[in-house]
Amino acid sequence: MSGPEKKKFRESAVVVLVRGEGEALEAFWVRRSDALAIQPGFMSFVGGKVDAEDATLELPGVADEAERAARACAIRELLEEAGVLVGLAPGVPAPSAGVLADARARLLERRATFVEIAREQAWHFAPEALEFAGRWQTPPFAPVRFDTLYFLARVPEGQAPIVLPGELALGEWVRPAEAIERWRRGEHTFVAPILWALRIMLEGGPDLAARLANAPRRAATPARQIEMQYAVVLHAMKTRPLPPASHTNAYFVGESEMALVDPGSDDPEALEELYRLADSLAAQGRRVKTIVVTHHHPDHTGGVRACRERFHAPVVGHVALSPHLALDIVVGDGDTIALAPGVGEWDLTVFATPGHTRDSISLWHARNRLLFCGDLVPGGPGSVVIDPPDGDMAGYLSSLERMAALEPRVLFPAHGSPQGAVSRRIRALAQHRRERETRVLAALGHEPRALAELLPLAYDGTPRSLWAWAERSLLAHLLLLETRGEAAREGDRWRKG
Ligand SMILES: [Zn+2]
Hints:
The protein contains 14 helices and 22 strands. By secondary structure, the protein is α+β, with helices and mostly antiparallel strands. The chain has 3 domains: 9-219, Nucleoside Triphosphate Pyrophosphohydrolase, CATH 3.90.79.10; 226-436, Ribonuclease Z/Hydroxyacylglutathione hydrolase-like (Metallo-beta-lactamase, Chain A), CATH 3.60.15.10; 444-496, Orthogonal Bundle (Arc Repressor Mutant, subunit A). The longest helix is centred in the C-terminal third of the chain and has 22 residues, at 422-443. It starts with 8 loop residues before the first strand and ends with a strand. The relative contact order is 0.10. The structure holds zinc ion (ZN). The site of zinc ion (ZN) has 4 residues, from loops.
């Protein structure tokens, strides 16, 4: 975990690579590998972060330095990730497939930079071959935010994109209608700008680049609808969660009837924004049927009362939540939250997943293998605080195991970014806890020690600003070790068991 410092944008570039016209228009898209830290398993277009070196590529006629670097980044990334070279100036001879393959290999193996290769091959670029296609900024829920320039490019005659195994799991040409259809069936997950690009390609009409460039404006009107999975709309509300999070993700889940999960803020402006989105969804025939609360922490319950009145919808939660919040419907492990079907079934299964708190529940959409996990798994770096006695390490570890065993395809956490490759990530978290436990055990001696003495031994890598929370998790580990006879307590001091 890091401190609550301001998140800076990372500059990046994306290429919407297309071929064909009209009905036959296709885009080249890729599936990101499950091993990536950002958007694992998501579909995306080719692109990446701007390198320091990108700004040094000669691109005549582009005065703005950030734009020049982004264009250079787009050209370089397309060669690295797809083996396609775009943007050559008229008169520059097209490189052979062999030259391109060699340049790509040298780039990927870091034997040469793109600027070096361009110089040596006498590649001169005409920036207008990449048409500006919009600027998108990652909304504030994400732990890493990108400021991304999109560019539209046509695949040059005689070239064909090929993805090499590694960061990308596959690459393919797809018609926008087909891509959107698969998304509606729940087969694909991707960030909002991808959906916009596909929809705009499907709409048809002249000047595709200009229409793509206008999409960020359209996306904000009347309300920003972030729908990475069909019928799962993410709306981040500014709350006061534990650092490094700053927002709680509320989710609208379902097609015609929706469950609203964790509206966490009671700030009037934040609620107005949520209502605007709900109204916009209502205009699409989607109605809030029920409000589901994953656990009692205030950054998950803040807006519940207001939303109950606004939507005339019952509040649903675990029985252990009822001392904290008035519930209309109490649910337990295995219960179903019924939502009207649409393209497919939308019922959600409730799983009791104690550990972070006693009343924690997760919601499972079996058909698309989607898991709404509340605070069980964070959507970014760091780990969840286990604060005894409400928090319980043994319960937490078995909840993790149980959710990993479901083999979810997409995880929708209450804080941070949704992600694919879920089981892998959940198992890594459980492993991290086991390693911590080993360190806690090693910190114990035959002489009893206070928590404050054990803390620097077991949590020395954790920033001091978070030690108050780390101490609670340390206690949770000790209590679990105590149940196994590996730690013993004398007053509030601890020794080997
Ligand atoms: Zn919480």
